[in-house]
Amino acid sequence: MQPSYLKICEYAARAAGAVLKEKVGKIGFREKGQADLVTEADTQAQETIRKIVGKAFPDHEFLGEETPGASADSYRNNPDSFCWVVDPLDGTTNFVHQVPFFCTSIALARGNELLCGVVYNPVTEEFFSAEQGKGAFLNGVRLCVSNVKKPEDSLVAVGFPPNTQLDCEDLQAFLKAVPIAQAIRRSGSTALNLAYVAAGRFDAMWGYSTNAWDIAAGALLLQEAGGVIVSTNGGPIALEDPKFLCAANETLLNAWAEILS
């Protein structure tokens, strides 16, 4: 019998999380680019995930942050294929500095259709999971986004790209939002931000510099928790170019979209 997609997704995330937990505080790092770090833990965690999903589903594509080039091309050229979209360590800078806000993010997609996804923080042991049409859960407890409707009442999470410049879209949006939002947080992990929106902890979040592996699992969590996620042009997100704005509910989404447009 073929194992379920979600079961393999969960098993792979926990295995990668064990790698991260064992290595935090013990290894060095290098720069992919200015202010963009990668550690030995990133690559080992990704290889752990690749072996698990590859053994279970050898005909599936694999798109991971640490090997994006050829994988991304293959994914774009085969848009109807099953593809595992993986960030083995989201929040690498936090990991390097032993700040316990990082995670493994794994999703299975077919084209832009998200089938299942998990976000796992191995330090806090919080395990967020979702399956298409079956809801989103945190350690087995069903999730629901918040019902905050007004931007001035919302706690918002934002992210900035490596080597942020004064004219970047993320910073300009942040400056617009600061005097309006109840408060703003920059956590350092897009996947956990999305999971927190799904859990109702954050009311909204946005980013203009995300990649497929940053958002795939979190986007499904959000949608299955009753939230809305759209691209910055107001349309649906596309994993091949995932520029997006997301909020916990449609009313709040529309309000923030108008402010940031």
What does this structure look like?
This protein has helices at 5-23, 40-56, 68-77, 92-96, 169-177, 190-198, 212-224, 250-260, and strands at residues 29-33, 36-39, 61-64, 82-90, 103-110, 113-121, 126-131, 136-138, 141-142, 155-158, 183-185, 204-207, 228-231, 244-247. The mean pLDDT is 88. It folds into 2 domains: 5-142, Fructose-1,6-Bisphosphatase, subunit A, domain 1 (Fructose-1,6-Bisphosphatase, Chain A, domain 1); 151-260, D-Maltodextrin-Binding Protein, domain 2, CATH 3.40.190.80. The chain is globular and about 50 Å long. Helix 1 (5-23) runs antiparallel to helix 2 (40-56) and helix 6 runs parallel beside helix 7. A hairpin with a 2-residue loop joins strand 5 (103-110) and strand 6. The chain has 8 helices and 14 strands. 36% of the residues lie in helices and 26% in strands.
